[in-house]
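Morning. Coffee machine broken again, so started the prediction first thing and wrote up yesterday's gels while waiting. Chain of 110 residues, entered below exactly as on the submission form.
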Amino acid sequence: MSLLIQYFEYFSNKDLEGLKSMFSNDVVLEDWENKGTGIDQVLQINKDIFEKNGKIRVVLLSEASTKMNYITRYFCQIKIVVNEWSNIDVVDIIDFNDDDKSVKISAYQQ
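Came back before lunch.
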């Protein structure tokens, strides 16, 4: 299973332990509402998102990637479906290191 599919499945299932297994200790998350640095802050942001929203489903619409030294950067167009009726269109840029750990996640609401 690809890293992206696994990441979005963990997010859709609100699986904090699964997400934790994919994050580097110094992971950075920045979206249109939050910014966090370090695995504990990023997990707390995800926990807060999960608690504020009901059912979450991430649909991967398109992806592209590029390799830069020890980082693979994924550009993802996704749709986040909340409670089966609310859609949020998002562009994610997710960087994974050579250990397949996410080091940076940037999410932009469209």
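The first strand starts at residue 23 and ends at 30. Going to sketch it on the whiteboard this afternoon.
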